[in-house]
Amino acid sequence: xxKSILFAATAMLAAPAAAAEIQIQxxxxxxxxxxxxxxxxxxxxxxxxxxxxxxxxxxVEAMRQNAEAMNRVIAxxxxxxxxxxxxxxxxxxxxxxxxxxNEGTPPRFLGYDAGNQVTVTLRKLDRTGAVxxxxxxxxxxxxxxxxxxxxxxxxxxxxxxxxxFARAEAQAREYARLAxxxxxRLLEVSExxxxxxxxxxxxxxxQVTGSxxxxxxxxxxxxxxxxxxxxxxxxxx
Length: 237
What we know:
Largest sheet: 4 strands, mixed
Strand order of the largest sheet: 1-2-8-7
Distance between the termini: 16 Å
Number of helices: 3
Mean pLDDT: 84
Low-confidence stretches: 1-16, 199-213
Structural class: alpha+beta
Helix content: 10-25%
Radius of gyration: 27 Å
């Protein structure tokens, strides 16, 4: 049996996770295709990181004040209909703060900063702006997001997979024709998925003026669901 010849065409630099090696007997040369396809869809979830940072003269007082403030923030989230399973503590920190001046002068102690941050999953995207405004009104002074994603992505993955499969096969057939072969035999398929979303909003996207807050405008746009498919074919007559 003559040794197979390997033709490779790569549609993107990133390669999928390595699969287990399987020895397959072939008669003709082998062509390997790596193709990426991305399908755009409206998102169905948004993630917001929100929290409170306070400063106090002692560590105990800083943590006490922070706990009170965070309890108000979480209570406000719950009052908006957000379930507890969609509110998760992401970080708690306590740090002494100093002011450093001229060299040789001891730093001046400013107090303790206590911070508490939660990650909130929003499932009603039309209320995202209202939730952000409510968080600020409740006392949150650290906000990042929103970051949009597609949780129910089975349909998008299927569409991306079909498109990638068809493109990989078409490209492999072109290589086969160039090499003087008329058909292909599929030997191996592997895939990996990636998510693509819009850039999260910056903190200063939230503006509150006086006692009344302007409604924060939030546009979900679309997010991409990408699949990378690697396919190996034997070229046949």
